[in-house]
Amino acid sequence: MRNILVLGAGRSSSSLISYLLNHAQAGDWHVTVGDFAAQAAAEKVQNHARGRSIRFDINDVEASAAAIAEADVVVSLLPAHLHPLVASHCLALGKHLLNASYVSAEMKGFHAEAVSKGLLFLNECGLDPGIDHMSAMQVIDRIRETGGRLTSFESFTGGLIAPETDPDNPWRYKFTWNPRNVVMAGQSTAKYLQEGKYKYIPYQQLFKRITPVQVPGHGNYEGYANRDSLKYIDTYGLADIRTMLRGTLRNSGFCASWNLFVQLGCCDDTYEMEGVDKMTHRSFIDSFLEDRGSVPVDQKLCERFGLAADAAEIRNLRWSGLFSDAPVGLSKGTPAQVLEHILNKKWKLDPADKDQIVMWHRFVYEHQGKRKQIQSSLVATGTDSVHTAMAQTVGLPLAIAARLLMQKKIAAKGVVIPTTREFYEPVLAELQQLGIVFSEE
């Protein structure tokens, strides 16, 4: 019997594993789920007749090779830096590999050998990157086919919370993805193209320079630029485009508040702080401010940034407990680790919480001498803290691609991302059937 091996049973795996198990009988395949925490893998399989769980440690070379040798297709949801290790096994054993992470330079280096062995190493096939590529290319190809010339493309995606979730949360945000990635986001210079000019935003300015986004029927948002929008100019075949910007979406007001953490240095991960075991939330913030005796931390913060005492940024930090005397609860940590730990106390999804994915594209193009515009948006809401919209939109594109590959409906070989018609047409069509639908105007 053919076998699909899924590596990783974390929060983004539930929809992918359920999909593959639900299609296992019709597809005549078996699904093996491997995770360092064997219990997590077992919970995802739930004694399914065509599933099994194993303990998987990529650093155990012999056991990893043995598990991968039994598979036809490997789907990796491991941390991105581990994908090259998985890819090395897949190359040696002749196995296809699919993942949702950005293509690294190391992964690109496997391209020629993967092609020579007839293997598909599909990357960036999740939400962002993934659905963003496919939905963008579907519209871009349609514009080209009707004789249009694209002059501007902007795209923003955010993992947020549904309006009914935690209504008193002024950030309108919780951790729906890896919390560390959220705290560390944007810590290199963002690069993009605007009106034919190359633009650069250093980390210190990133959350000050935002793009307003309005999604019909859902409200106003703000976007900040991703690290590198320029590399997708060639990927999308847009050599003559004048504006190319990809970024992350947040609810209005988030970026101004988060910018306080950035300017203070709270997101620094390069050194360990002293006395973390005795630190409170308030003393953590105070450690980045000048010593002024008995002046309250919130007052010093207002004076440092020229804010009123009732400014939204101050209210957001107060709601998050940053001015409280609660103990941090760590024995040691970098500023970024301490901040993540503090925020997770209020930002962790409760069982009944619903997350919400919002994706927005704007295409500006010329057609028969006229300037035209298309705005395309996707809004998907989760069911609860386990069956999240994030898990659906990250996992289902990968799962659909794995099914298509098992059915020999994908011909691509080598290290690729899903920007061609053979990927985006069937994947987007099935996602629409599953309720993940774009609206255009």
UniProtKB/TrEMBL annotation:
PANTHER family: ALPHA-AMINOADIPIC SEMIALDEHYDE SYNTHASE, MITOCHONDRIAL, SACCHAROPINE DEHYDROGENASE. GO terms for cellular component: cytoplasm. Coiled coil: none annotated. Residues 4-120 form the Saccharopine dehydrogenase NADP binding domain. It holds the Pfam family Sacchrp_dh_NADP. This is Saccharopine dehydrogenase NADP-binding domain-containing protein. Keywords: Oxidoreductase. Gene3D superfamilies: Dihydrodipicolinate Reductase, domain 2, Domain 3, Saccharopine reductase, NAD(P)-binding Rossmann-like Domain. The lineage of its organism: Bacteria, Pseudomonadati, Bacteroidota, Cytophagia, Cytophagales. The keyword Oxidoreductase applies. GO terms for biological process: lysine biosynthetic process via aminoadipic acid. GO terms for molecular function: saccharopine dehydrogenase activity. Residues 126-436 form the Saccharopine dehydrogenase-like C-terminal domain.
